[in-house]
Amino acid sequence: MIEQTPWLESNFLPYQASATCPPGPVVVLAPHPDDEVFGCGGAILVHLAAGDAVSVVIATDSDYGRFQSGEDGRSVRRREAVAAAKVLGYGTPCFWGLPDRGLTYDEGLIGLVLDVLEKTEATILYAPSWWEIHPDHCVLALAAVEAARRCPRPVTLAMYEVGVPLHPNLLLDITDLAARKQAAMACYESQLRMQRYDRHLSALNQFRTYTLSDSVNAAEAFRLLNREDLHKDPLAAIRPGLYYALSRPMSELGLPLVSALFIGGRAALADALDSVMLQTHAHLEIIVVLDRCRDERDLADDLVPWREGRFPLRVIDTDGSLSRAERANLAMANARGEWLLLLGDGDMLAPSHVATLLASLGASAPARCACAMARVECLRQSGGQPEIADWRLAPEPRTPMSFESVPLAAVLFARSLFEGGCRFDTQFDDRMATWDFWLQLACRTRWIASGD
Asked: Residue 3 pLDDT > 70, yes or no?
């Protein structure tokens, strides 16, 4: 059986609070006045106590909302922000005056962030997280990520939370600073008239003590990313599912890599990839082999949902002259997994398909091939309507006829069989080539029949 490391919450969420932050100088990007207090007011105080220079930028004019008769929203919010800055003690914020609810992710906004990083020589940049639901928060987060990635100096990006809890790797103890943070929040009287943000702030900071000791009564949460993280794969940190799945290397979890190899047509691609993404086995790669000449449309847009999914995806284009047998051999030659699984037209996997097959193989060593029940979509002879049929391998496949109708996706086999010479014979049609390939596997290893 495959041994997995026990699931530990501490691998995903800090169980120790920090009393310090990465050293400055510091730039704080706030979409609106009060976000700098709500998201990282405690961190600002910690930096100031450490002697770090702190520069706060408020991006929008903050004119959106309800104000009392005769009040100018922009003037009110600026006056409140200056008052809050005095409470925190960092000086006076910089106001960009961009349209409230009108921030646009473009080169202009990225350039503004790069300019302030250069002028301040900041080594840490605080910005809203890209999990935020407010449009200005999300846009400013994306601009901060790209600016930190482009910055010629090493910059640590520290994402903070306001409207949506983020996935933290730093919890900052602000127990002794909570009252001063609340005093700064109280400066935003116009906002507190509309909604009790002070209560939300207190609740969020208290919630963040969930994994901490009783001595911590308030904490701020941050997601820290360095420039190398952003250069390598900026999207890897934006997907919570991927973040949890890949928080530890799969080798540490004892999970072998499985290569899912799609060799069917484009019409069947979406369903096949969806079924792979839903696998309970957490260590897969996907290889798609398609005839570019048979369908000239660019695959880039079509594959976006899966390129940003749980598992890495590679595409191999062919010139339209390859048979399915040749595409299968090409896919296997490019696979990196210890185990291989082929998918053709109409093949969809149950979520536990790969995990079940691997468990069967682990219990039946040294077998190198397992076959599970599969649901196969085929066309009826009359009417051409799709039909879903259940298929199961006989418990003890002993004769060549046992393998005649084995679907591609039902079988998981070791890559070592391919390396040992098993290939799809390109002289046969699709059905015969598949049957012949299964017989080659059967000559080299015992097949395991598994329920799914």
From this structure: no
